[in-house]
C-alpha cells in the first residue's frame, strides 16, 4: 500500500504487496534520481524523524512518485505546482518513515519467501538486466544488499498499513445500506434523454446569404441523417458534417437532464421512440438534428446498482480519516523536524 499526498491532500493508493512500494518510486525502471536541469539533489538533510535523517534525494524520489511526468521534461516540475508537490512529498516521506519505525518497534518481520518475491518483482520492472544493474549502481553504489533493505523496508510499511489502515477502513454492507436508506435524495435521478446531435452553426454575425446556406446545409444533413439506421451510422455522419463540439464523440451527449434541454427539443423527443430522428430544430440561428437513443424516466438508483461505487467512495473517505489519525498518533509519539 502506498500513501501519497498531493498538494497537501491525503490520497491512498493500494498497490500489490509483491512490489517495492512505500518509500520507493512506483516505476522502478525509470526511478533513478539523476537530476534534470531543474533538480539537483546532493544528499542534503531535509528532515529528521526520531533521529533518522532524510535527504533531498529521498525527497526527490517522493516528488517523482507524485508527479512522474517531471522526468520527461528538461525543466522538471511545473513552477506553479512545485511548492505543493514538494510539501506533499515531504509529508509522505515523513509518514512512511514513521510507519517503518513503528513496524520495527512492534517487531514485525518480512518472511524470506515474501522478500524474495519482492526482489524478483522489482527486478522484473526493468527492461533488461543491464538497466537493473545501472539502477543499482546509480542509487545504491552497486550494493544489492542496500537495495534489499530498501525493499524490506517497503514491505514492512505495506504490512503495517494493511493492519492499521486498510483493514480498519473496510465498510460493511450494513453501513452501505444504512447510508443508502438515510440519503435517498442522493440516489434520485431526473428525467433525461440519451441523444446524439448534428448541428449546423452559421458564422457569427452571419449575412442573409450565409443564413440561407446554413439552412441548405441543415436540410442536406437531415436527408443524410434520415438514411442512417443505427447509432454508429448517425455518429459517423455527425463526425463528418456536424459543427458542434460533440462531433468528436459521434455526436453523443450521453444522458441529458430534461431541464437542460431547449423546450423545442424536449417537445420533439417526447413524441419519439428510441432510434428515431427529429426534423430540423432551429435554436436561435443554429440548426440541430437529434437522434433519440433512450428516454429515461425519473427514478431512484437501486441499491444493488450503486453498491460497488458507494463502497469505493465510503472506503476511500474512511481510509483518509484512518490514515490521518495514524499520522497524527505517530507524530504525537515521535519527534519530527523539518530542516
List keywords for this structure.
4-stranded antiparallel sheet; 3-stranded antiparallel sheet; 49% helix; disordered N terminus; 11 strands; single chain; Chitinase A, domain 3; alpha+beta; 339 residues; 16% strand; 10 helices; Triger factor/SurA peptide-binding fold
Word description of this protein:
The chain is 49% helix and 16% strand. The chain has 339 residues and is an alpha+beta fold. The model is unreliable at 1-23 and 25-37 (pLDDT under 50). It folds into two domains: 2-174 and 311-338, Orthogonal Bundle (Triger factor/SurA peptide-binding fold); 191-297, Chitinase A, domain 3 (Roll). The chain has helices spanning 56-66, 79-105, 112-123, 129-140, 144-166, 173-182, 208-227, 231-241, 263-270, 303-333, and strands at 2-6, 9-13, 45-49, 52-55, 188-189, 192-200, 252-257, 281-283, 286-296, 299-300, 336-338. Strand 1 and strand 2 form a beta hairpin. It is elongated and about 80 Å long. The longest helix has 31 residues, at 303-333.
Amino acid at each position: 500500500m502506498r500513501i501519497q499526498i498531493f498538494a497537501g491532500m491525503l490520497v491512498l493508493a493500494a498497490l500489490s504487496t509483491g512490489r517495492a512500494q512505500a518509500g520507493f518510486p512506483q516505476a522502478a525502471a525509470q526511478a533513478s534520481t539523476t537530476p534534470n536541469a531543474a533538480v539537483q539533489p546532493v544528499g542534503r538533510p531535509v528532515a529528521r524523524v526520531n533521529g533518522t535523517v532524510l535527504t533531498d534525494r529521498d525527497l526527490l524520489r517522493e516528488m517523482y512518485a507524485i508527479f512522474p511526468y517531471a522526468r520527461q521534461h528538461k525543466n522538471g516540475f511545473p513552477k506553479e505546482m512545485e511548492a505543493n508537490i514538494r510539501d506533499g512529498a515531504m509529508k509522505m516521506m515523513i509518514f512512511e518513515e514513521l510507519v517503518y519505525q513503528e513496524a520495527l518497534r512492534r517487531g514485525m518481520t518480512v518472511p524470506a519467501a515474501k522478500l524474495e518475491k519482492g526482489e524478483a518483482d522489482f527486478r522484473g520492472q526493468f527492461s533488461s538486466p543491464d538497466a537493473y544493474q545501472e539502477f543499482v549502481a546509480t542509487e545504491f553504489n552497486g550494493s544489492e544488499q542496500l537495495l534489499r533493505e530498501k525493499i524490506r523496508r517497503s514491505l514492512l510499511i505495506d504490512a503495517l498499513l494493511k493492519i492499521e489502515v486498510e483493514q480498519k477502513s473496510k465498510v460493511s454492507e450494513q453501513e452501505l445500506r444504512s447510508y443508502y436508506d438515510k440519503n435517498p435524495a442522493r440516489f434520485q435521478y431526473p428525467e433525461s434523454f440519451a441523444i446524439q446531435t448534428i448541428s449546423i452553426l452559421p458564422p457569427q454575425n452571419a449575412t442573409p446569404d450565409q443564413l440561407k446556406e446554413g439552412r441548405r446545409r441543415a436540410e442536406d444533413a437531415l436527408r443524410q441523417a434520415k438514411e442512417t439506421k443505427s447509432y454508429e451510422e448517425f455518429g459517423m455522419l455527425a463526425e463528418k458534417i456536424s459543427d458542434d463540439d460533440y462531433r468528436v464523440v459521434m455526436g453523443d451527449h450521453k444522458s441529458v437532464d430534461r431541464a437542460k434541454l431547449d423546450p423545442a427539443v424536449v417537445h420533439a423527443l417526447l413524441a419519439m421512440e428510441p432510434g428515431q430522428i427529429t426534423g430540423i430544430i432551429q435554436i436561435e440561428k443554429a440548426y440541430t438534428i437529434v437522434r433519440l437513443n433512450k428516454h429515461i424516466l425519473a427514478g431512484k438508483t437501486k441499491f444493488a446498482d450503486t453498491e460497488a461505487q458507494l463502497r469505493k467512495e465510503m472506503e476511500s473517505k474512511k481510509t483518509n480519516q484512518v490514515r490521518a489519525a495514524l499520522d497524527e498518533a505517530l507524530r504525537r509519539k515521535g519527534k519530527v523536524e523539518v530542516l
